[in-house]
Amino acid sequence: GKTGVRQHHVGTHLDCVVYFEAEEDRWHCPCHEGNFDTRTGTVISGPPPRPLGRIDVEIRDDTIWALGYQP
């Protein structure tokens, strides 16, 4: 199947949920204004101490499978 990477949608500062902001092309944490790169999960701005967690995925028969998680 086709493989890829997705970011975990919980911020790394205080575990708040992050939201995709298409107009800014970033993941945004509204708790303390943290921002993350949409492709890599790296911190763009704000207080988060580390990048978003990484979820390795694979698509098989129209189903997305999580293969592993790296915090």
Features:
71 residues; mainly beta; 49% strand; elongated; 0% helix; three-stranded antiparallel β-sheet; four-stranded antiparallel β-sheet
Order of helices and strands: EEEEEEE
- Radius of gyration, in angstroms, nearest whole number: 13 Å
What's the overall geometry?
Answer: elongated
The percent of residues in helical segments reads: under 10%
Give a quick account of the main beta sheet: strands, pairing sense, barrel closure.
4 strands, antiparallel
Low-confidence stretches: none
Structural class estimated from helices and strands = mainly beta
Tally the helices: 0
Mean pLDDT: 93
How many runs of DSSP E, i.e. beta strands? 7
Strand content: over 45%
Output the strand order for the largest sheet: 2-3-4-5
Q: Roughly how many Å apart are the termini?
A: 24 Å
What does this structure look like?
Helices cover 0% and strands 49% of the residues. The chain has 71 residues and is mostly beta strands. The chain has a four-stranded antiparallel sheet, with no helix packed on it. The chain has a three-stranded antiparallel sheet with strand order 1-6-7, with no helix packed on it. Strand 3 and strand 4 form a beta hairpin. The radius of gyration is 13 Å and the shape is elongated. The two termini are 24 Å apart.
